[in-house]
Amino acid sequence: GRYAEAEPLFHQALEMRKRLLGQEHPDVATSLNNLALLYNRQGRYAEAEPLFHQALEMRKRLLGQEHPDVATSLNNLAGLYWGQGDINHALKFFTQGLKVEEHNLTLNLAVGFERQKREYINTISATTDSSISLHLNFATKNPTATTLALNTVLQRKGRILDVLTNSQQILRQRLDSESQSLLTNLTNTQTQLAHLFYNRPETLPLEQYQTQVAQLETQAKQLEDQLSRRSQEFRTQTQPVTIETIQKLIPGDAALVELVQYQPFNPKAAPDKRFGKPRYAVYILSAKGETKGRDLGDAETIQNTLELFRDNLRDKETPITQVKKSAGDLDKILMQPVRKLLGNTRKILLSPDSALNLIPFEALVDENNRYLVENYSFTYLTSGRDLLRLQNHSPSQQPPVIIADPDFNKPGEIVARQPKTSNSQNTRSIDLSQKIFSPLKGTAEEAKAIASPNLLGVKPLTGTKATEGAVKQVKSPRILHIATHGFFENAPANKDKTTLDDNPLLLSGLVFAGLKPRQSGGEDGILTALETTALNLVGTKLVVLSACDTGLGNISAGEGIYGLRRALVIAGSESQMISLWKVDDDATKELMVAYYKKLLDNQGRSEALRQTQLDMLKGEKYQHPYYWAAFIPSGDWTSMDK
Length: 642
Known about the structure:
- Helices cover about 50% and strands about 10% of the residues.
- The chain has a six-stranded mixed β-sheet, sandwiched between helices. It has a five-stranded mixed β-sheet with strand order 3-2-1-4-5, sandwiched between helices. Strands 9-10-11 form a three-stranded antiparallel β-sheet.
- Helix 19 links the parallel strand 6 and strand 7 (about 460-465).
- The chain has helices at about 5-20, 25-40, 45-65, 70-85, 85-110, 115-120, 125-140, 145-155, 160-165, 165-175, 175-200, 205-230, 230-240, 245, 300-315, 320-335, 335-340, 385-390, 440-450, 470-475, 505, 530, 560-570, 585-600, 605-620, 625-630, and strands spanning about 255-260, 280-285, 290-300, 345-350, 375-380, 400-405, 460-465, 480-485, 485-490, 510, 525-530, 540-545, 575-580, 630-635.
- The termini are far apart.
- The protein is an alpha/beta fold.
C-alpha cells in the first residue's frame, strides 16, 4: 500500500527492461501490467487502462493468444472495468480470460504429478469465485453474467477429484494398443507445450519460441482428433463443457440444480478485504429457458443448521417432531429459495457441494410440513459434467456380484489368482490398524435375500470370501452390491508434505475381510477411493454401497462420501446408491429387498428408491427418516433396461 514509494521503482524497472531487452519483450509487458495494477489500486483508472491494453496486446503478439499471461491481462482488464461499474466491458474481457484459463487448465491437468495439478488448479480459484460474485452481487439480471458463472461452475466444480483419479491412466487401460500409442504422443506433446508456456528458455529466440508453440498446438489438435474418432470415452472426457452441451442432456421434465460454495469478491474493497467469508449459491438449468441463479446465504449459518439436522437424522431416538423442526429450518434457508426458481419442476438432478454432500435432501421438510420426497424426485450428481458421461452405455460383462458381511479378523481367501495392481503400494496413506470395525452380521441376511433366485439369482461372497481382492477382480458386473464399513479419516498432521496430504480419495474408502491380518485375497483389506477408480465398472448399471458408516471423520467427511461416489463414477459405473450413515440391519434388509423388486420391475433406478422410501414412510415401523432417508441415488436415473 506504499504506492508513492512503489511507483518510481516500477517506472525504473520498465525503462531498464526496454533499454536492455528491447521494446518488444514479454518482461516489458510485465512491467506495463504491474504499473497498471498500481494505478488501478489507487483508482487512477484513466492511467491504468492504456497500460493494461498495451500489456495485453504485447503478450498476445509475443507469447500467443492462449498463454497464461494473456489470461492474466484479460482478467486484469475485467477487474479494471468492474471496479468502475462498467459491467459489459468487464464481462467481455472476463469471458475471454476464463476461456484461456480453461485451455491451460486442460493442458496442465493432462500432465505432471498430482500435487502439481492440485496446486495449479488453486491458482485459478480466485477467478471461479469472481465469476460467481460478478453475477450474484453486481449483475444479477444480466444473462451474460449468469452464463459465465454457470459455465465456470460446470467446468471447475469437483474437477480436482477428477484430476486426482489420474483419469488419463485409467483411460489408457481401456484403449486398444494403437489408441494407447496416440494417447502417449498426446501426453508428451501436452507436456512439452506446458513446459514451454511456463518455463520458456531464456536462450530461445522469440521467433523460434512462437514457431515451436504453434507446431505443438497443431500437433496436439491432430492427435486429439484422431483419438476422438477411435474412443467414445476419450471424446466424452475431452469435449468442451458448456451450458449448451449440458442443457441438451437434461430431460424436459427435469432441472439441474447446481449448488456451489464460493467466496464473494469485491474489486472496490481494500486488497486484504476483497474476498469475503464463504457463502452458498445455486444455479438452475432446465432443458429450455434461461439459466437462473441466486445467493443462498453464508456458509457457516447453513452448515450449522445442517449439522443439527444431520445429528437428528442419524439418531432413531430423536422424536420425529424434532427431526421435522430441524429439517424445516434447513429447508427454509436452503431449498425454499430453490423451489421458487424451479416452478412446477418435480424431477431434480442435484449436484451438492462441500458439506451439502452429507445430507439427504429428500428428508427436508417444506412449509406444508411434508418431506420433499413426497413431492420431488432427487437424483444426485457429483457435477453437472456427469451428464456427459451418462451418454456412454456399455454392455455388462458378468452377472451381479454381491459382497457382504466380511470377516475382518481372519485372512481373506484368494478366490482366484489376483495380479498385484501397479499402484497398490503407493496409494496407502492411512493406518486403520487401531480402528475397530464391528461385524456386520445383518448384512449376511440382506445378501442372502437379494441373492435369492426370485431377485438377483447369484451366490454372494461373504465371510472370508468378502475380500478386497474379490472386488478388484470384478469385470463389469451388471450390479455390484457391497455391504461393509466405509471410512473417512483426516490426514495425519505430521505427514510428509510430498505426499497427497489432502487427497480425499486416499482418505476415504471401504474395508474388507482380512483387514486385521492385512490379508484380503492378495490385498490388505483397505480399498481406498483412489483404488476404486481403477476398478473395471464400465458396463456396470448400478453399484450399491450398503451399511457404509462414513461418519468416522468430522463434518469434512463430506469429501469422503463425495470422493467415494466420484470414484465409482470414474470407474465407469452408470449409477450408484450410497448410504450416508449406518442403518438398522433389519430396516436395511427390507429396504434393499423392496428396492431390488421395484428395480427388476423396470422402475427407474432413482424412482425405485423413492417409491421404496414412500412405502416405508407410510408404514408404522420405519417411518422415522433415520430408516428410509439414509440412502441416496446418484448417476443414471433411468430403468436398467434402457
